[in-house]
Amino acid sequence: MEISAEQYSRTESFLPLQRGNVRVSNLQVVNAILYVAEHGCKWRGLPKRFGNWHTIYTRMNRWVKAGVLDWLFEQMQHQQLIRIKIEAVSLDSTIVKVHPDGTGAL
Q1: Which of 25, 68, 71, 104 has a CB 3.0–4.6 Å from the CB of 63, allowing a cystine?
Q2: What is the pTM of this model?
Q3: Can you state the angle between helices 53-66 and 68-78, rounded to 10 degrees?
């Protein structure tokens, strides 16, 4: 699941402008995020073609905090560029034994 440069041009206005010496384009970042969403891999497991995983993660994290990523995905789904469907949710938990006194037992 990747978007092309033509598809990206339709959503480019929803992303912040890149400033300074940028080695990874916003298109690469969007495609890397879509790759992680599709394959469920760790950030460190991203293929090298996307660029440095830490750069991509840092930019994605900034976009999440600013609300940009939610807005971008909403617009991409509205324009039918992508379709994200959650089929399964996995939760991880830790079991901690509690002493009987901590549960209110006699």
Answers
A1: 68
A2: 0.71
A3: 90
